[in-house]
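Good morning,

Attaching, inline, the backbone tokens for the sequence recovery test we're adding to the shared suite. The designed sequence is right after.
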């Protein structure tokens, strides 16, 4: 009575991306440590060879593994109910709700609830409430009425905060991303580079994925409804620029990107693009630069959720104390990228 198990390669792709949408669909058993995790676990990724996927927690336990104390893989269903209940409460509320009040509803402590909520939505409950206000303001703007009226109707204290919260976003329209790339054509290719086989994929707006040791299957997982076309004349010109940028790192800002994340993820990605080649930042510095100094772990997750390696230079983030930290495509590629850029590297990791 085993549940239908999804493809191990798809599982591993989800784990590397810390893709929350896979939580509850399988668990990741780490044979070397004897624990099992939800796919989105924020802990450092194990080596692929130490990993075995299980359709359910029960099967992982039957194999002698224990649940991870960090991501609490057995709590997925309970967490989802709690987050959905909190979102409903936030939406229904006239006034911003205190975290403690939201937590009480769920039976979690405020700190734990904040962590669960942030893991699910990418935003703290307070930031989620602000994003909701921004969305309502945008909706009001498309209707009749004056701009300032719309702003006050949405609960903002004044126009400047509205414009601040609605700073330019990057790339593909949110609906196209939410629909797995429906209506979008993605050109792609795998090319050999000094860092190994590199996958580059782009929409008409810009590069939507850059990764290593991946192929068409990874794109099908991420953009199941997009039309995937290998190669193409216009794409070839873009591909040439991307390869040149990867081989001789420098200013990548002329290369268009098409990425979409939560407001906080996009803030983190923008800050990553501001780190000059040859320099590094810690996860704590990144969180602070993105405006949330205490969201160090969320900044790390946003870093890991980056779809466009190198061009959004998540490899320029290292651990406090100088260790290299993790990298979705392996530390060797991270080290090579940093060396190419002339960064001063720690001796070991
Ligand atoms: Zn875990």
């Amino acid at each position: 009575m085993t549940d239908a198990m999804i493809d191990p390669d798809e599982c591993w792709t989800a784990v590397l991306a810390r893709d929350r949408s896979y939580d509850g669909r399988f668990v990741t058993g780490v044979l070397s440590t004897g624990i099992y995790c939800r796919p989105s676990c924020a802990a450092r990724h194990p080596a692929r060879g130490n990993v075995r996927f299980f359709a359910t927690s029960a099967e992982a336990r039957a194999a002698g593994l224990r649940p991870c104390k960090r991501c609490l893989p057995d709590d997925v269903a309970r967490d989802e109910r709690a987050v959905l209940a909190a979102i409903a409460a936030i939406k229904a509320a006239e006034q911003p709700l205190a975290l403690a009040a939201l937590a009480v509803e769920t039976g979690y402590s405020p700190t734990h609830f904040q962590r669960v909520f942030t893991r699910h939505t990418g935003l703290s409950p307070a930031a989620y409430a602000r994003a909701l206000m921004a969305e309502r303001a945008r909706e009001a703007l498309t209707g009749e009425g004056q701009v300032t009226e719309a702003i006050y109707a949405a609960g903002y204290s004044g126009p400047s905060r509205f414009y601040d919260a609605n700073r330019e976003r990057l790339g593909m329209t949110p609906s196209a991303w939410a629909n797995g790339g429906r209506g979008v054509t993605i050109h792609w290719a795998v090319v050999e580079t000094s860092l190994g086989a590199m996958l580059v994929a782009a929409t008409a707006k810009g590069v939507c994925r850059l990764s290593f040791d991946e192929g068409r299957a990874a794109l099908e997982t991420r953009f199941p409804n997009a039309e995937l076309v290998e190669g193409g004349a216009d794409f070839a010109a873009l591909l040439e620029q991307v390869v040149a940028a990867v081989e001789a790192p420098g200013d990548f800002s002329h290369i268009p990107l098409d990425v979409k994340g939560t407001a906080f993820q996009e803030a983190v990605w923008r800050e990553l693009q501001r780190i000059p080649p040859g320099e590094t930042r810690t996860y704590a510095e990144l969180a602070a630069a993105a405006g949330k100094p205490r969201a160090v772990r969320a900044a790390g997750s946003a870093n890991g959720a980056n779809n466009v390696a190198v061009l959004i230079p998540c490899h320029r983030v290292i651990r406090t104390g100088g260790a290299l930290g993790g990298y979705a495509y392996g530390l060797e590629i991270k080290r090579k990228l940093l060396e190419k850029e002339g960064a001063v590297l720690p001796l070991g990791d």
